[in-house]
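Re: weekly structure request thread

Next one in the queue (315 aa):
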Amino acid sequence: MIILNISFLFPGQGSQYSNMGKDFYDNFLIVKRIFEEASDILHKNIFSLIFKSSEKELEKTENSQLSIFIVSVSLFKVFEKHFNILPNVCAGLSLGEYSALLAAKKIFFKDTLLLVEKRAKLMSLSCKKNRGAMSAVLGLESKKIEEIIDKLKKSYKIWIANYNTEYQIVISGSLDGIKEAEKLLLEEGAKKIVSIKVEGAFHSGLMKDIEKDFKKEVDKVEFKNSDVGIVMNVTGDYVEFKDIKKCLVKQITNSVRWKDSIFNMVKKGVEIFLEIGPKKTLTNMNKKNAPECKNLNLEKVSDLDILEKELKSLC
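Done, posted below.
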C-alpha cells in the first residue's frame, strides 16, 4: 500500500445530476454490487432512482442525498481497487462527510447508508415545517458578510451556512431573511448572488427541531478507529475519534467551514487533493483554497487513465 500526502474529498448535495456514475455502473461489477446492496438495504430500486429519475426528482433531499452518497462510494471503491493508495486524510462537504467517513474506514457501508437515509428524511421533514432557502454570495469577503448577517439576526432568522472560499459564502435562513440579506449584500458590493436549489435552510437554526432525533440515530451506530485522519465541517480541522459523532450532529445546524478544512490539511502536509464523486465543485473551489497543491478529480471512467498517469508521476 502506497501512502501519499493525499486527501480524498467528497461532494455534497447539489452535485447530483441524471445518469451520474452510469459509465462506472456499466463497466465495473463492484458498482453493480453496491447498487444491489443499497437496493436490498433500503428496499428501493437504486438503479431507477439514479438513472431514471428526472432532474426535479433528484433534487428532492431524500433522493439527492442517497444518490450522491451511493455514487461517490461506488467511485471510491473502484479507485480503491484500481490503485494501491491510502490517503492521509479524508473530508467531505456537508453530505460528503459521510462518504469521507466510509473512505477513512470509520464506519461500515450499511450503517452509513441508513444514517444518510435518516438524515435526508429528517431534513426534508424540517424543510416542510420551517420554510427557508439558501443562496451563494460571490465576490464579497467573509468578514463583511458576517457583519451584515450579524446585524440582520436581530430581526430575521438568518445564518452563514458555508464558508466555501474567501469569496464564496452560502447564507441560509427564512425566506424573508434571505431576501433582505441578498438586497443588503448586493448593496455592499457582492458581485453575484445565486439561489441554491435545495428544499430549505440547511446548516441553520431552522434545522434545530431535528437535532435530537438525529442524535439518537447517530448514537446507535458503531464507529471504528483507523489510521486515516478525518477533517470535519463543524471545526474545519482534524478531529479525534471520540468527537466524530458530536460533529455529525452539530453539522445539521452549524456552518460548514470548508475553507478552513482545506487550509488545515495543507498545513499538515497534504500536497494532493482528489475529489471523488459527481461534478468538480470541490476541485474548482481548490483553485482558490489550495492553488499550490495538485488538484485531481474522479467523476468519469475516463478520469482513471488520467489519474494513473498523474499519480504514477507522484509516487
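The first helix runs from residue 22 to 27. The CA atoms of residues 183 and 271 lie 39 Å apart.
Next request, please.
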